[in-house]
């Protein structure tokens, strides 16, 4: 697991991805870059480049070091921030929320929020905020009942969709800001997913056997 490259950042803009690559390269952090095509564009207006995500992957053990590298790179820009920057209009509660949910904001925004709070004389316990945030993100997400029903239905029909839904429910994971990998769904949903997956496989094999048997017994 320590040597596995997992997603650290995802960008739709290749220029932003290139900036991240430069920071990681400068600090000798091993990385890989993969391209991921977006599955569906409802507007049908995106170009090939716009419909592509760039995934920057690093090893789990390098997450904190990479974050430090990015923060060092952003500090100079924070000190030169324009006086009309939108974060300057945020109240203290909103700024604290940015720091608590730093995984939803850019490193620049988090650093600027911290700087503004410091200038306002507001002290915060970042360690406690990060711990609480990680606990929130670790909490599994209950699967939609309709999805479970559809998954079982397609599994009984021997369809690939049932197997796919089952596999995702059982084995899908998400990456936390600290690089930790956790299951997305709770235990009950994961058990349903495993049953669904193997049921779909079993029905598919049975259908294939029946078709082969029918072909052998009735060649014409």
Can you walk me through this structure?
It is a single chain. The protein is α+β, with helices and mostly antiparallel strands and 220 residues long. Helix content is 55%, strand content 12%. The protein is built from eight helices and five strands, in the order E-H-E-E-H-H-H-H-H-H-E-E-H. It has helices at 14-26, 63-79, 92-100, 107-119, 126-138, 145-156, 160-171, 187-217, and strands at residues 5-11, 32-37, 52-59, 173-175, 181-183. Strands 1-3-2 form a three-stranded antiparallel β-sheet, with helices on one face. It has a two-stranded antiparallel ribbon with strand order 4-5. Strand 4 (173-175) and strand 5 (181-183) form a beta hairpin. Helix 2 packs across helix 4 (107-119), helix 6 crosses helix 7 and helix 6 packs parallel to helix 8. The longest helix has 31 residues, at 187-217. The N and C termini lie far apart (54 Å). The model is unreliable at 39-49 (pLDDT under 50).
Write down the overall mean pLDDT: 86
- Principal-axes geometry comes out as elongated
Low confidence ranges? 39-49
Distance between the termini: 54 Å
Q: If helices are DSSP runs of H or I spanning 4 or more residues, what is the number of helices?
A: 8
Structural class: alpha+beta
Order of helices and strands: EHEEHHHHHHEEH
Largest sheet: 3 strands, antiparallel
- Please bin the fraction of helical residues: 40-55%
Number of strands: 5
Tell me the radius of gyration. 24 Å
Kindly report the spatial arrangement of strands forming the biggest sheet.
1-3-2
**Beta-strand content bin:** 5-15%
């Amino acid at each position: 697991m320590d040597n596995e490259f997992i997603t650290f950042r995802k960008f739709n803009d290749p220029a932003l991805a290139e900036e991240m690559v430069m920071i990681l390269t400068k600090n000798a952090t091993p990385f890989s870059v993969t391209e991921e095509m977006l599955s569906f564009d409802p507007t049908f207006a995106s170009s090939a480049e716009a419909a592509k995500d760039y995934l920057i992957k690093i090893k789990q053990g390098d997450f904190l070091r990479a974050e430090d590298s990015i923060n060092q790179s952003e500090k100079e820009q924070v000190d030169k921030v324009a006086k009309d920057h939108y974060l300057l209009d945020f109240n203290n509660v909103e700024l604290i929320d940015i720091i608590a949910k730093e995984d939803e904001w850019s490193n620049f925004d988090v650093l600027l929020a911290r700087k503004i709070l410091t200038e306002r004389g507001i002290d915060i316990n970042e360690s406690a905020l990060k711990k609480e945030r990680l606990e929130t993100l670790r909490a599994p997400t209950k699967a939609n009942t309709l999805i479970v029903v559809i998954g079982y239905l397609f599994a009984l029909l021997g369809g690939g969709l049932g197997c796919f839904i089952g596999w995702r429910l059982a084995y899908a994971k998400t990456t936390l800001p600290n690089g930790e990998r956790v299951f997305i769904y709770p235990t009950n949903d994961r058990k349903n997913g495993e049953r669904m997956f193997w049921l779909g496989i079993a029905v598919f094999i049975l259908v294939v056997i029946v078709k082969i048997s029918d072909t052998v017994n009735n060649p014409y």
